[in-house]
Automatic annotation (TrEMBL):
Domain ATPase BadF/BadG/BcrA/BcrD type: start-end pairs: 8-302
Entry-linked Gene3D superfamilies: 3.30.420.40
Domain of life the protein comes from: Bacteria
Pfam family, one: BcrAD_BadFG
Protein name: BadF/BadG/BcrA/BcrD ATPase family protein
InterPro entries: ATPase_BadF (IPR002731), ATPase_NBD (IPR043129), Euk-type_GlcNAc_Kinase (IPR052519)
Length: 334
């Protein structure tokens, strides 16, 4: 029987790895770069972070041979992707056992008890929705426009900010404060320069992500163009939640809607307010919650569920006042 749980929340921008003993006591928690990298590179990165977490806990790396891994990862959307990541992690031959799933499931478990019917919508760089009622599950593919999505949450806001600002700059669209924001945050002389630098390869698309909070700022300040973008995302959140619940009609019990990801972590609750305004039925159909604990705590809870241990209170208490140690790039060198 494993004596440790290694919990992993792997996202686009960061990866949290936490190590707990069998009683749910948090031994260490480290944060590294994003791990949405493909199966082999994800497994290699998380294995290095796991070794660092073990050393931070005062354990030898081979102590992980007594650990169960609960890996909940962005990019594990389809069964074939989940299987590939599970096989890649198992091939590292570090852990006693491992479970792998999409990171949205960890957030859902964080928001509700193990068997309660719930929907979760994650708005980070990407946009993901899953639902569970008893033994039934439903998961939207979340692969982008090809599967009917907005192509992300933060990514959607950032790309759309550039698009509407470009139209404002050349007169095709209404003026917006997003133009000035883009010039300042991306240090460009014009919005057109964003496209030119992306084409030349001197501006990577992932750098646009810094614009997403600015869209929320501009919307809060009354910018009509920014408000329309936020409203589009808010409507999609409501649509995902209600549709996911309809796909699991068997449960007539009270439902919980769990909202998470970087855009819902905003202390001003700007996106949450927009969602409630765009889809007021959510507060009738669901109990809406935004968990205070980090998603890696949800991965840990799923790990303990898998082992048949009850450690909810200990796990939540351990993360309540804790913070991850940021791993510097030199520590990740092979």
């Amino acid at each position: 029987m494993p004596r440790l749980v290694l919990a992993v929340d792997g996202g686009n921008s960061k990866t949290d790895v936490a190590l707990m003993n069998a009683d749910g006591l948090l031994l260490s928690w480290v944060r590294g770069p994003g791990s949405a990298l493909g199966a082999q590179r994800t497994a290699a990165l998380v294995t290095r972070l796991a070794g660092i977490a073990a050393r931070d806990a005062g354990l030898a790396t081979d102590a992980l041979a007594r650990a169960h891994g609960a890996y909940y990862l962005a990019g594990a959307d389809l069964p074939v992707q989940v299987d590939a990541r599970r096989e890649a992690v198992a091939a590292q031959q570090v852990l006693t056992s491992v479970e792998v799933g999409n990171d949205a499931w960890a957030l859902l478990r964080l928001g509700v008890a193990a068997a309660a019917p719930a929907v979760v919508v994650v708005c980070g760089a990407g946009l993901k929705c899953v639902a569970r009622a008893g033994d039934e599950r439903y998961e939207f593919p979340g692969l982008g426009w090809q599967t009917g999505d907005l192509s992300g949450a933060g990514d959607f806001l950032a790309r759309e900010a550039v698009r509407v600002a470009a139209r404002a700059e050349d007169g095709r669209g209404p003026d917006t404060g997003l133009r000035q924001v883009i010039l300042e945050q991306l240090a460009v002389p014009s919005v057109r320069a964003v496209a030119e630098r992306m084409l030349a390869g001197t501006l990577a698309e992932h750098r646009l992500g810094i614009l997403a909070p600015a869209v929320l700022d501009c919307a809060r300040d009354g910018d009509a163009v920014a408000s329309a973008l936020v409203d589009s995302l808010a409507v999609e959140v409501g649509t995902l939640a209600c549709t996911a619940r309809r796909r699991l009609p068997g449960s007539r019990r009270d439902w919980t809607l769990v909202l998470g990801g970087g855009l819902f972590a905003d202390p001003d609750e700007r996106l949450l307010a927009a969602v409630r305004a765009a889809a007021p039925q959510l507060d009738t159909d669901f109990t809406v919650t935004v968990p205070a604990e980090p998603p890696v705590a949800g991965a840990a809870l799923l790990g303990f569920d898998h082992l048949g241990f009850s450690a909810d209170e200990a796990v939540r208490a351990g993360f309540r006042d804790a913070a991850p140690r940021l791993v510097c790039p030199e520590e990740l060198s092979p």
